[in-house]
TrEMBL record:
<protein>
    <recommendedName>
        <fullName>TLC domain-containing protein</fullName>
    </recommendedName>
</protein>
<dbReference type="InterPro" id="IPR006634">
    <property type="entry name" value="TLC-dom"/>
</dbReference>
<keyword id="KW-0812">Transmembrane</keyword>
<dbReference type="InterPro" id="IPR050846">
    <property type="entry name" value="TLCD"/>
</dbReference>
<keyword id="KW-0472">Membrane</keyword>
<feature type="transmembrane region" description="Helical">
    <location>
        <begin position="45"/>
        <end position="65"/>
    </location>
</feature>
<feature type="transmembrane region" description="Helical">
    <location>
        <begin position="168"/>
        <end position="186"/>
    </location>
</feature>
<dbReference type="GO" id="GO:0055091">
    <property type="term" value="P:phospholipid homeostasis"/>
</dbReference>
<dbReference type="GO" id="GO:0097035">
    <property type="term" value="P:regulation of membrane lipid distribution"/>
</dbReference>
<feature type="transmembrane region" description="Helical">
    <location>
        <begin position="198"/>
        <end position="223"/>
    </location>
</feature>
<dbReference type="GO" id="GO:0005886">
    <property type="term" value="C:plasma membrane"/>
</dbReference>
<keyword id="KW-1133">Transmembrane helix</keyword>
<feature type="domain" description="TLC">
    <location>
        <begin position="35"/>
        <end position="231"/>
    </location>
</feature>
<dbReference type="GO" id="GO:0071709">
    <property type="term" value="P:membrane assembly"/>
</dbReference>
<feature type="transmembrane region" description="Helical">
    <location>
        <begin position="77"/>
        <end position="95"/>
    </location>
</feature>
<dbReference type="GO" id="GO:0007009">
    <property type="term" value="P:plasma membrane organization"/>
</dbReference>
<feature type="transmembrane region" description="Helical">
    <location>
        <begin position="107"/>
        <end position="124"/>
    </location>
</feature>
Amino acid sequence: MEFSSVILTTGGSVGFFRLVNLGVSKLPMPESACRNEWKWRNISTSVVHSLITAVWAVLCFFLHPQMAEDLIETHSVFSHALVSFSIGYFIYDFFDMVLSQKLSQSWELLFHHIVVITCFGLSVLSCRYVGFAVVALLVEINSVFLHLRQILRMASLATGTLYRVNSMINLGTYVVFRINTLAWMTRWLVLNRDKVPLLAYTLGSVGMAIMTAMNIVLFYRLLRSDFLKSSTREAKKEKEM
């Protein structure tokens, strides 16, 4: 893709997610979610991004399997467009949070978005490591269930069967598509150190370290909230009986 195409795709993505957000605001909202209307719209928009990106990332490797053998140079226009599209979403979401939340409430996600925009931006502009970026976007498969978890909680549906099933799928896909994917990417970076320029290697290593730390902390929070606490409550109920 030429530079103009990258700008068009990224800019179009920013506009698309702005329209999605506006569209969500026109739809009915659970009464319990009205306390934080912005968060409901933001998470709903994130679900749309995750669904599109998850399917798109899988299709990239299905339609262009040779990309899996060379994550540095080999890529298709389809995969390049995916990374550009995702940059647009992260730019949109960055400014949505900056304009709607206090820094103390969103600094972790803002920092995450800066790292992703920087790494993906260098990839699409240099037309290198696009395959590596697409591998990183496989985490969006888990993000579908991660965002759905937040929607269910905001809709006061955190005690039903649907929530429990989603929690189990969320934790399973978290291990497979977040922790395992990040571990594989880190291993790949180390094994291919001689093929990667120092700047790209340093940026990639720092980015992987930050993402790994953030994901381990989030995994513990999910485990504690959805499984450890519920187990404790059940144990207390059994003692009372």
